[in-house]
Specification:
By secondary structure, the protein is an alpha+beta fold. It contains 13 helices and 27 strands.
């Protein structure tokens, strides 16, 4: 009885322990994976046993209490997989169908449920990294069948020693591509995402960009590369994609596709963007048979697009082509080494080296104002590739050659003085040349020539020209100052005249009055002159008569005297005797009236005293002197004086003499 009791107790203890050994509790925040250790046959699906064979059972145990045969089954309690908000989880399947030769990731076209291993395998799920990703949330994942890689943690059941390192390497690869976070295209940043697909069929020969993928309705069916299976089903190919990602958030599997963030193509106001497409179908050349500088095609085809991009923002794929910015406003090209425009097209240009007619070698700075019609911008790009190449390979040599030719026909002074004329002619003559290259030349601006380094010929000539100009300006200044002085004088006179207007008026009236008085006086003078003229005429007649009478009298007196003298001469016996007598008479009179003693007062002589003393002596002395002088003068005058006694008289004198004699002989009437 005791033995039976012990055996019964032992059996009950065994049953209790057996039941207790088979109990498994799975918390609500965990899952259980059942592994069958003992059984016949092996698993047909690798680690997962879909039948009764040993292996990991495909079904998960959720929160609760479970009983499994001890030693036959093993239950692994594993955590739920949690993907944080805004993060991405990557799934790796350990078992499943093998990948095709052209596959990089396992297809999820039919096997899309990672929480049901049986369904995944039944629908042809493939082993390896999956194309679908896990979004934010908590997922009950069979961590023996699947490995889930998230940012900071990898969820899996280690089965082999090197698995941990392999999955860590995959996690680093995903993290390097930023794959644990969605692709965010910020609209304020003006960027786009260029997508490169790493799975799917390869590109056709000659293609470098995968074409756009569209559904039958014309819209993209792959949700911007977020659904790889839809992308591949619509004919998508691996490689750089033509379609880009614009503003938004995209949960893209970075093992399937990577995204490069690049700026949008912004065409500023005052410019157009000429598109040079590297991809697309070949189209007909629209530039014409005579134009041999490339292909101008319709939009979307390979080549230079005929229609340029107008100002705005464009999500242009810079891997599929390039946009050449062409300014449509006037821009300046400067042939000045130290200066360049904002566009930098002229940064390699320098002053034009010239040789003038008089052998100077100046450097000429230039500025050329150019305009490009937006409708002709594609032609310019088609011909030259870009504006910089146009400037350096065409405009620079053309402009330099033109001004070198101009300089050879002018001296340095002419080059300086004729700058405006040269500038005008250059604008006119070069306009046609620019038009040949589909450019519009607005204006040519010429700077001041400079001397080569270390030489100052031009500066010397400029100094001379400045001195000459200063002199001319001084002349003009002095002339203007002179005119100003004259004007000032006139002003002062006018001001003085205004101040003295009353006096001027009075003086003018006085002048008028005096003029009238003068006229009256003049008339009186005229009358007085006439009167005096009449009186003078009468007086003149009187004087003339008197003068004639006096003349007649003087003539007759003279003739009478002449006759008397002549008779006296004849009576003396000649003119010398009369002359002697006259001289001595005048001499005696002079001595008498002067009172000068010319002889002694007392003369000792032989005469008696009774004869008169002094008077006698004087008379005797005078007689002696007179006799002596008479004799001496007579003797002197006698030399050289011819005898006049027999000289004939003139006829007129003779007639007058006869008349006077007759008058004197006529008897006087009493």
């Amino acid at each position: 009885m005791l033995l039976l009791f012990i055996l019964s107790g032992a059996f009950l203890l065994f049953v209790f322990l057996y039941v207790l050994a088979g109990l498994r509790f799975v918390p609500n925040d965990r899952v259980g994976v059942v592994e069958k250790r003992i059984g016949g046959g092996g698993s047909l699906h690798g680690l997962i046993a879909l039948g009764d064979e040993p292996g990991f059972r495909p079904d998960l145990l959720r929160g609760g209490l479970y009983w499994f045969k001890p030693f036959v089954y093993r239950v692994r309690v594993l955590p739920l997989v949690t993907i944080p908000q805004g993060k991405i989880g990557y799934v790796y399947a350990r078992t499943g169908a093998p990948l095709a030769s052209d596959q990089v990731l396992a297809s999820n076209a039919t096997a899309r449920n990672f929480e049901d291993v049986r369904d995944f395998l039944a629908n042809g799920g493939q082993r390896g990294p999956q194309r679908l990703v896990l979004r934010q949330g908590t997922h009950a994942i069979h961590l023996v069948q699947f490995v889930v890689i998230t940012e900071g943690q990898t969820f899996f059941v280690p089965l082999e020693r090197n698995e941990k390192e392999e999955f860590a390497e995959t996690a680093r690869l995903i993290e390097g591509r930023g794959g644990f976070e969605p692709v965010v295209i910020d609209g304020a940043a003006d960027v786009v995402g260029i997508v490169t697909v790493h799975d799917g069929p390869s590109l056709a020969d000659g293609e470098i960009i995968a074409p756009s993928v569209r559904s039958a309705g014309g819209a993209a069916s792959h949700e911007a590369f977020q659904d790889p299976e839809a992308f591949l089903a619509a004919g998508g190919r691996r490689g750089r994609q033509l379609d880009v990602l614009v503003e938004g958030t995209y949960y893209v599997n970075r093992l399937f596709a990577t995204v490069d963030i690049v700026p949008k193509t912004i065409v500023e106001v005052g410019s157009v963007g000429v598109v040079v497409s590297y991809t697309g179908a070949e189209g007909a050349d629209l530039s014409g048979a005579d134009y041999k500088h490339g292909e101008l095609v319709e939009t979307g085809l390979r080549g230079v697009w005929r229609d340029a991009l107008m100002p705005g923002k464009y999500p242009f794929n810079t891997s599929a082509g390039k946009v050449v910015m062409v300014p449509t406003t006037n821009f300046i090209l400067k042939w000045i080494r130290s200066e360049s425009g904002e566009h930098r097209y002229d940064e390699n240009l320098a002053e034009v080296s010239l040789i003038t007619k008089d052998a100077f070698e100046p450097s000429l700075p230039l500025s050329v104002v150019v305009h490009i019609d937006y409708r002709k911008a594609p032609l310019v790009v088609q011909r030259f590739g870009d504006i910089r190449r146009l400037v350096e390979q065409t405009l620079d040599p053309m402009v330099s050659a033109y001004f070198k030719n101009v300089a050879q026909t002018r001296t340095l002074i002419q080059l300086l003085q004729d700058r405006s004329q040269i500038q005008t002619h250059a604008t006119q003559e070069m306009r046609d040349k620019f038009a040949h290259y589909n450019l519009e030349l607005e204006e040519v601006l010429i700077g001041t020539p400079t001397s080569p380094s270390g030489r100052g010929e031009i500066e010397t000539i400029l100094a001379q020209l400045r001195a000459r100009q200063i002199a001319e300006e001084q002349i003009e200044t002095y002339s203007r100052q002179e005119r100003a002085a004259v004007k000032e004088r006139d002003l002062r006179e006018a001001e003085s005249r205004a101040k003295q207007q009353t006096a001027i008026t009075e003086s003018e009236l006085a002048i008028t009055l005096q003029s009238n008085q003068g006229k009256a006086e003049f008339q009186r003078s005229v009358q007085e002159a006439a009167r005096m003229q009449t009186l003078a005429g009468a007086e003149a007649g009187k004087i003339r008569v008197l003068a004639e009478a006096d003349a007649e009298r003087a003539a007759r007196v003279g003739v009478g005297q002449a006759i008397a003298v002549d008779e006296m001469v004849r009576a003396y016996g000649g003119p010398q005797f009369q002359l002697t007598q006259q001289v001595m008479t005048r001499f005696a009179e002079a001595i008498e009236h002067s009172g000068i003693d010319i002889v002694p007062r007392i003369v000792v002589g032989g005469g008696g005293a009774a004869n008169g003393g002094t008077s006698s002596a004087s008379a005797n002395g005078a007689g002696v002197v007179e006799a002596l002088l008479t004799m001496l003068l007579s003797d002197r005058m006698g030399q050289g004086l011819p005898a006049d006694r027999d000289r004939p008289r003139g006829a007129a004198a003779e007639a007058l003499r006869n008349s006077v004699l007759e008058a004197s002989r006529a008897p006087t009437k009493r």
